[in-house]
## 1
Amino acid sequence: MAIRVARLSQGDVAKASALARRVMLATPYYPREVLEEEARRFTPAALRKRGRGTLFLVARDGTEVLGFCAGYHEDGGLFWLDWIGVDARARGRGVGRALLGALEEAVGGKARKIWCDTRTTNEESMALLRKQGYERVAEYRRHWYGLDFYIWEKRLE
Ligand SMILES: CC(C)(COP(=O)(O)OP(=O)(O)OC[C@H]1O[C@@H](n2cnc3c(N)ncnc32)[C@H](O)[C@@H]1OP(=O)(O)O)[C@@H](O)C(=O)NCCC(=O)NCCS
C-alpha cells in the first residue's frame, strides 16, 4: 500500500503517541533520562494540547501509523524540526523521505528554512537529511545535555 502523510487527526493521536514514544525510547543517541523527558512531550494529552504554530505529521500505510515528524514555526521565518521517527520495522522504505517532503509542502510559503539538529553519531538521520537536500551548517560540541550536535538546514526559497 502507498505511504500517505497527513496532519495528525484526533483519531490517530493514540497510535501516533505510542509510535513516537517507542521510537524515542529506543534511540541510542541520548541518555535514558533525556529520552524519558522527551517522551513526556508526546503523550496523547500533550499531542492534543499542541498549540498554534506547531505541526505534527504522520505517515500511514492504510490504518497503520508508520512514522511521524513534529516541529514548530519560529519568529523570523524559520521552522524547527523537532523530531522525526519511523517504526523500526518500516525503515528503509522511504517513509522518512515522504515525511520530510510533506513537511516542506506544509511549511513552504510560511517558512524560509527548515532547520534541525542531529547527534554527530546519528548516521541514519544524517543520511536521510542529506538525501532530502539538507545542508550541514554548524557543529556544537558539548551542547544540549553536554552532547555533540550538528545543525542542518533546508532552504525553501
Ligand atoms: C532516521 C529515520 C527517521 C530514517 O527513516 P527511514 O524511513 O528509514 O528513511 P528512508 O527510508 O526515507 O531513507 C532515506 C534515505 O536515508 C538513508 N538512510 C536511511 N536509513 C539509513 C541507514 N540505516 N544507514 C544509512 N543510510 C540510511 C538512505 O540514503 C535513504 O535513501 P535511499 O532510500 O535512496 O537509500 C529512522 O532511521 C529513525 O526513525 N531513526 C530513529 C529515530 C531518530 O534517530 N530520529 C532522528 C532524531 S530527531
Note: Strands lie at 4-7, 54-61, 64-74, 78-86, 113-119, 135-140, 149-155.
## 2
Amino acid sequence: MKYIEILEMKMPVIGLGTWNLRGKECFEATISALEIGYRHIDTAEMYENESEIGDAITQSLVPRSEIFLTTKVWSNHLQYQDVIRSLESSLKKLKTDYVDLFLIHWPNPNIPLSDTFKAMSYLKNKGMLKFIGVSNFDKNLLLKAQQISSLPIMNVQVEYHPFLDQNSILSYCQKNNISLTAYCPLARGRELSNPALEKIANKYNKTVPQVMLRWLIQQKNVVAIPKAKSAEHQRINFEIFDFQLSPEEMNTIFQLNRGQRLVIG
Ligand SMILES: NC(=O)c1ccc[n+]([C@@H]2O[C@H](COP(=O)([O-])OP(=O)(O)OC[C@H]3O[C@@H](n4cnc5c(N)ncnc54)[C@H](OP(=O)(O)O)[C@@H]3O)[C@@H](O)[C@H]2O)c1
C-alpha cells in the first residue's frame, strides 16, 4: 500500500467507498476489504452504515490504529452543538473513540463556517478526531475555510475521474499540503468499455477500473475511494501497485475530460 504523508497525516491512497452499502452487505464488504488489505474506509452520517462498519472493524483482526477512518457531518448539522452531537453519534456507531478524518459533507450557506470549525477544534482537543477537511467545496470556499479554521484543512473530497477535470482545486491542494480524495473514482462504473481506457488496460493486462484508479493515484496528493461490494471487485481495485502509466498515457486520460459531473448537490 502506498500512503500520502502530509504533516502528521498518513493516508492510504486507496480506500473503500461505502455509499449505498447498508446492513449485512456493508458489514460483509467491510470485512472482506480489511482482509484484502484495505486500511482506509470512507463513510458519512448520511450513509446510514456507520454501525455496520463499526461492527466490522471491531470484529476484524486489524487493529483500529492501522485503519484510516473517515466520516462526514451532514450539511444540516453544521451549527456548533450539532457538529458535536453528530460526531458523538458517529463514534458511538463506529464503536471507536476517534476518527482519523472528519469532513464537512456539503457546504451550507446558511450556517457560518466559523461555527462548524469552532466545534471541530473542540472535538480535536477532546481527541475525537485527528484531522479535518471539507467535501464538495470549490477552490474559493476552500480558501475561505482555510482563513476561518484554526485547524489546518488537511483534505478535500470531491468528485474526480477521467471525465471530470479538477485541475483548479487539485493544483491548489498540491501546492498547499492538502490531500485530495477522489470520489466516484470509477465514474460509477459507467465507462467500463471506454476504448481509450481499454487500450491502455490491455497493454498492461489490467482492467479499465484499474487504469482509472492508477491514473488518479499517480497524481500528487490524490487518494481514491472506489466503492465495491464484492470481494472480487475490491481485490481488482486494490491491485494497482504493480504497474505504472507513462506520461503519455496519463495525458491521454487527462484528455478524456468532458466536464461530466455525476453528483449534483
Ligand atoms: N463526499 C461526497 O459527497 C461523496 C459523493 C459520492 C461518493 N462519495 C464516496 O465515494 C465513494 C465512491 O463513489 P461511488 O460509490 O459513487 O462510485 P464509484 O466508486 O466510482 O463506482 C462504484 C460502482 O462501480 C462498481 N465497481 C466497483 N469496482 C468495480 C470493478 N472492479 N469492476 C466493475 N465495476 C466496479 C460498483 O459496483 P459493485 O459494488 O457491484 O462492485 C459500483 O456500482 C462512495 O462510496 C462514497 O464513499 C462521496
Note: The beta strands are 3-6, 9-12, 16-17, 40-42, 68-73, 99-104, 129-135, 153-159, 179-183, 222-224.
